[in-house]
């Protein structure tokens, strides 16, 4: 008989070159949350410390901007200073009855999140006609955001479309003088289509050090050749694209470091991005330095990850392990092994009567029909048996259809399934995991997934899809 209180989670990840040293990695603190530094007192629009000293004043200008994004100061209940470990910065957090706003230390609006529970799809179907289809309402929201955040005409709307059945996504990004769009100077907004309110947004404001281009496209491609050759152990194909973009160096794939950074650098650069369809290599457009790259989690050829993706995979799995433990699950040890016996190990866990939580990061087929990894193993929806509560398949195209969510039987009350609608790179997926797993339990899984998606800059970087109970927090039961 199933013991409903023995809720187990099996954390898996895939790589191609054998086992890793677990002991050497256990000591690292991967959780990047928020540390409260000081709580303040509220006296009208004056925010004071415990000594009665004025910390800052919410003047008419700031109050108007907060009103434009839907934050009611009359309901202000809490103000605190926190250190955001994920972004390594100090911010002021203002909270009222249902929303939270973050301000930079110089009182610029950074983000807002709506903490109200979003009803499950079944409860909102009758309200579909109230979705955000009116151009007038949409224009009002766009103009309010521009005014509240002082966005100039250089900020262009590069995405404005439905994200899922409840949310619309609007992304502003700054066009630089040379015409290049900078995703690190922009705003990522989710709008609730049921009530036409801002659900969450994040503002990013990082400019590149220089826009001077000294390396030609052809030179950049030649520089990248050794990386492609080393990955594939063969001459790379000529069907590559090369575009001038703004990126954050991660030094993955570079000769100097060869791994993703746990703590990304705090600057962005203009680079030639060489793309062969699955792997990207970043080459500094000013000096030719290899700044890193990315590999999509989705590929019909599992070897694309190689050993260089082990670090992100392991860290993502450890973050998930910590998150499930925080939610009250009895966590089984993180599974690390060569991929030759991965299928049998996965099925062994999934077939247990006490298994309710599951996270895996690996490859996803281009059509979303199966999971795979090095060693020739694969897993199909038809392999899944039982009823699961909280599942996150961190692989490309795992939410391209409902097949996986239905296989895990997650589309029911107090159940949640997360997957990626399209292909996703290892870097943005890991950034999502850093935000998401550190904050589980603070709000419903769906709300938190939207916040995590909004925390990663760029169009199409975090195409997360949620199936199941929109109001469930994910707690073990």
What can you tell me about this protein's structure?
The chain has 477 residues and is an alpha+beta fold. The chain folds into 4 domains: 34-114, no CATH class; 138-205, Nuclear Transport Factor 2, Chain: A (Roll), CATH 3.10.450; 221-295, no CATH class; 301-468, Rossmann fold. It has helices at residues 22-26, 60-68, 121-124, 135-148, 217-232, 310-326, 342-350, 403-407, 426-439, 445-454; strands spanning 8-13, 34-43, 46-48, 54-57, 78-84, 89-95, 99-103, 109-114, 155-162, 167-175, 181-192, 197-205, 241-247, 269-275, 279-284, 290-295, 330-331, 355-361, 363-364, 371-372, 378-379, 390-394, 416-420, 464-468. The strands form 4 sheets. It has an 11-stranded antiparallel beta sheet with strand order 4-3-2-5-6-7-8-12-11-10-9, sandwiched between helices. A 6-stranded mixed beta sheet has the order 17-1-18-22-23-24, sandwiched between helices. Strands 13-14-15-16 form a 4-stranded antiparallel beta sheet. Strand 7 and strand 8 form a beta hairpin. The two termini are 16 Å apart.
Summarize the structure.
This protein has four domains: 81 residues, no CATH class; 68 residues, Nuclear Transport Factor 2, Chain: A (Roll); 75 residues, no CATH class; 168 residues, Rossmann fold (3-Layer(aba) Sandwich). The chain is built from ten helices and 24 strands. The protein is an alpha+beta fold and 477 residues long.
């Amino acid at each position: 008989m199933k013991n409903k209180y023995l809720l187990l989670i099996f954390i898996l990840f895939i790589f191609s070159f054998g086992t890793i040293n677990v002991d050497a990695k256990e000591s690292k603190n991967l959780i990047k949350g928020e540390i409260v530094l000081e709580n303040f007192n509220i006296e009208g629009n004056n925010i004071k410390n415990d000594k009665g000293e004025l910390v800052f004043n919410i003047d008419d200008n700031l109050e108007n901007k907060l009103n434009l994004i839907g934050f009611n100061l009359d309901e202000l209940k809490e103000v605190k200073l926190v250190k955001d470990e994920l972004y390594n910065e100090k911010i002021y957090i203002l909270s009222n009855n249902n929303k939270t706003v973050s301000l930079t230390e110089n009182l610029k609006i950074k983000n807002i999140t709506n903490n109200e529970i979003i009803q499950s799809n079944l409860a909102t179907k009758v309200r579909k006609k109230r979705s955000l289809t009116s151009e007038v309402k949409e224009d009002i929201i766009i103009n309010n955001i521009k005014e509240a955040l002082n966005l100039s005409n250089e900020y262009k709307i590069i995405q404005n479309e439905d994200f899922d059945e409840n949310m619309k996504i609007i992304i502003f990004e700054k066009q630089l003088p040379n015409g290049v769009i900078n995703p690190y100077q922009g705003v990522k907004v989710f709008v609730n289509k049921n009530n036409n309110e801002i659900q969450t947004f994040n503002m990013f404001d990082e400019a590149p050090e220089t826009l001077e281009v000294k390396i030609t496209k052809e030179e950049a491609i030649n520089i990248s050749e050794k990386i492609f050759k080393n990955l594939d152990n063969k001459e790379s194909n000529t069907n590559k694209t090369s575009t001038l973009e703004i990126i954050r160096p991660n030094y993955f794939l570079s000769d100097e470091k060869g791994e993703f950074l746990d703590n990304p650098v705090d600057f962005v650069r203009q680079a030639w991005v060489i793309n062969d369809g699955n792997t990207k290599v970043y080459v500094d457009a000013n000096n030719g330095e290899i700044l890193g790259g990315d590999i999509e989690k989705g590929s019909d050829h599992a070897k694309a990850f190689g050993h260089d993706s082990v670090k992100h995979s392991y860290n993502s799995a450890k973050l998930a392990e910590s998150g499930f433990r925080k939610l009250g699950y009895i966590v089984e040890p993180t599974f690390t092994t060569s991929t030759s016996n991965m299928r049998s190990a996965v099925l062994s866990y999934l077939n247990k009567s006490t298994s309710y939580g599951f996270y895996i990061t690996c490859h996803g087929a281009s059509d979303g029909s199966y999971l795979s990894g090095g060693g020739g193993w694969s897993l199909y929806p038809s392999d899944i048996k039982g009823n699961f509560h909280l599942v996150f398949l961190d692989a490309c195209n795992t939410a391209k259809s409902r097949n996986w969510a239905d296989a895990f039987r997650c589309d029911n009350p107090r159940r949640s399934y997360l997957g990626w609608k399209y292909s996703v790179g290892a870097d943005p997926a890991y950034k999502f995991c850093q935000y998401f797993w550190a904050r589980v339990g603070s709000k419903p899984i769906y709300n938190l997934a939207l916040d995590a998606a909004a925390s990663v800059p760029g169009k199409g970087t975090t195409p997360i899809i949620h199936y199941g109970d929109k109001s469930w927090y994910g707690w073990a039961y």
